[in-house]
Amino acid sequence: MNSQRIVVKVGSALIAPDKQGCSSRYLLAIAQFIQRCRLRGIDVVLVSSGSVAAGRHLFSASDQNDITLKKAMAAAGQNEMMATWDRFFDFKTAQVLLTHADLRNRDRYQSIRDTLFALLKNGILPIVNENDAVTTDHLRVGDNDNLSAMVATAADADTLIMCTDVDGLFNKNPAQHQDAQLLKNVPRINSDIYAMAGGAISSVGTGGMRTKVEAAEKATSHGITTYIVNGQLDSTFAALLAGENPGTCFSPYEKPMQEELHWLAHTTRALGEVVIRDAGEEDFTASNVLAVKGEFSAGDTILVRNDDGEKLAKARSRYSSCLLNFIAGQSHRINALGFDEPIVQQDCMMALN
């Protein structure tokens, strides 16, 4: 396997296949793969789903879809999940719990990078999961497929391996079509590839094939080779170690996006919008602000639109929504007030037209 640093993502269907807590049925082979990678000098980060699935059996069967109860399941199941992984390894592991708020804030994102680098430098295996016990809807990544791509980017990985309970991406749903064919190699993700990805196949996890394709797009645009493989088969990991492709391989971009722009495009979410007079990038100034939508702070990500509704840019705002609303109402006094600078940080801006 020609990799220096890999992220291995393991889904709930492999961790708790019977919905009765964690099972070693599939995890032992994955743990052995991780150990063999480390023996070859390959850094490994593990992104592990399964806290809700691991804790589900501890609660009554009624109303298990209640969001508050799911948070409690995650809190109870996280210990079991970590303990299960720990007993497979003879080296130290570390628990890293994240929310989308941690990833979309640039300072906290950098802190996550520093933590991952420090753990890897000291031979400790980071085990990452979304912090389901405390996160809310607007702070969630929502699935660990996309989380694994964000972690792979933050960790400067060169390979992402998403282990699931199917062989890879098929041209049609193999559960419904006997003639479905496995796509071994995907050179570029486009609308046709997304059309092949349906909903969730497993009843245990939150992700499906579409979220895996989304994750692959995030990762490959950062130059990360990405695999979707069947984690139920021991042969999968033997093939990976031999440098073979046991599932679907998504090719990385030949010219990856710059790290800051990749973070802006694939990790942050726009918290608001600013409408300006139809103008070029050089005119993203306070005097052109017509309206402000949403609430955001200085440094948050926003969308910039023209007065026809066309998206012009995604960028970090230099001002809060409160101050921009004030500016919009004082356009005749902009220069006197000293707000003649661009409203966005131009070193962290992505044009959308």
UniProtKB/TrEMBL annotation:
Pathway of this protein? Amino-acid biosynthesis; L-proline biosynthesis; L-glutamate 5-semialdehyde from L-glutamate: step 1/2
Give the enzyme's EC designation: 2.7.2.11
Q: List, alphabetically, the PROSITE patterns matched.
A: GLUTAMATE_5_KINASE, PUA
A Pfam family of the record is AA_kinase
Q: Which residues bind substrate?
A: S49, D132, N144
- Just give the chief location class: cytoplasm
Q: Name one GO molecular function term.
A: glutamate 5-kinase activity
The lineage's top-level taxon is Bacteria
**Chain sites annotated for binding ATP:** K9, T164, D165, T206, G207, G208, M209, R210, T211, K212
What keywords appear on the UniProt entry? Amino-acid biosynthesis, ATP-binding, Cytoplasm, Kinase, Nucleotide-binding, Proline biosynthesis, Transferase
Sequence ranges assigned to domain Aspartate/glutamate/uridylate kinase in this UniProt record: 4-230
Query: Where is it localised?
Result: Cytoplasm
The record's catalysed reaction(s) read: L-glutamate + ATP = L-glutamyl 5-phosphate + ADP
UniProt function note: Catalyzes the transfer of a phosphate group to glutamate to form L-glutamate 5-phosphate.
Q: Which NCBIfam families match?
A: proB
Family under the similarity heading: Belongs to the glutamate 5-kinase family.
- Its protein name is Glutamate 5-kinase
Which source organism?
Answer: Pseudobowmanella zhangzhouensis
Q: Which gene encodes it?
A: proB
